Amino acid sequence: MIDRADERSRPPLPGLRVRRLGYGDLPQVIAIERRAFPAPWSLAMFVLELSKQSGICLAAELEGSLVGYLICSRYAHVWHVMNVAVDPAYQRRGIASALLESLFAQADRPGAEYTLEVRPSNTPAIRLYERYGFRVEGLRKAYYHDNREDALVMWRRIPSEPEAQMTARGRRGSDGEEQR
């Protein structure tokens, strides 16, 4: 479930730190979740995601306070960005960008794939994800329970090594000259 994310329209916050999200963060997570989303996740949903060894759960912290988080689960070779939230008081300051960049720094590998769902009405989040290489590839009808809004399904793919090499070679002929 992705519903809100920020885009940089104000300078990033100095002193922002991204770290692993832990069970001790859950009271702050639940508070942000309730302020940020019309249909917030339950405590049990967060506990389940934190218990998965293959997932990546991140916290954005400013001056000792949690201001955002990201939940990403792994299914085979696909990373599913399940939840990105930033406290409404701190949105549009680069926090969601910092969380995504930290995720990609940890998980990007040749052939990696990421997917997420986002509300079509959440234009700032869509623009943010597009800046990081996500593209709309599908639609889930009536996905959101609060208002039955559809979800756009977005994907980001990292080329595998041979695929990246073939793409580079495809632009050059056997003599190394660029093809037109």
Explained architecture:
- There is one protein chain.
- It is built from five helices and seven strands; from the N terminus they run βααβββαβαββα.
- It is of the alpha+beta class and 180 residues long.
- The protein has one domain (17-170): Gcn5-related N-acetyltransferase (GNAT) (Aminopeptidase), CATH 3.40.630.
- It has a seven-stranded mixed sheet, sandwiched between helices.
- β2 (56-62) and β3 form a beta hairpin.
- Belongs to the acetyltransferase family. RimI subfamily.
- This is Ribosomal-protein-alanine N-acetyltransferase.
- One of its GO terms (molecular function) is N-acetyltransferase activity.
What is the fold's blueprint, element by element?
Blueprint: E1 17-20, H1 26-36, H2 43-51, E2 56-62, E3 65-75, E4 78-86, H3 95-107, E5 113-118, H4 123-131, E6 135-140, E7 151-157, H5 161-170
Parallel strand pairs: 4-5
Antiparallel strand pairs: 1-2, 2-3, 3-4, 5-7, 6-7
Question: How is this structure best summarized?
Answer:
With 180 residues, the protein is an alpha+beta fold.
Features:
Aminopeptidase, Acyl_CoA_acyltransferase, seven-stranded mixed β-sheet, single chain, 5 helices, 180 residues, disordered N terminus, cytoplasm, YpeA/RimI_acetyltransf, alpha+beta
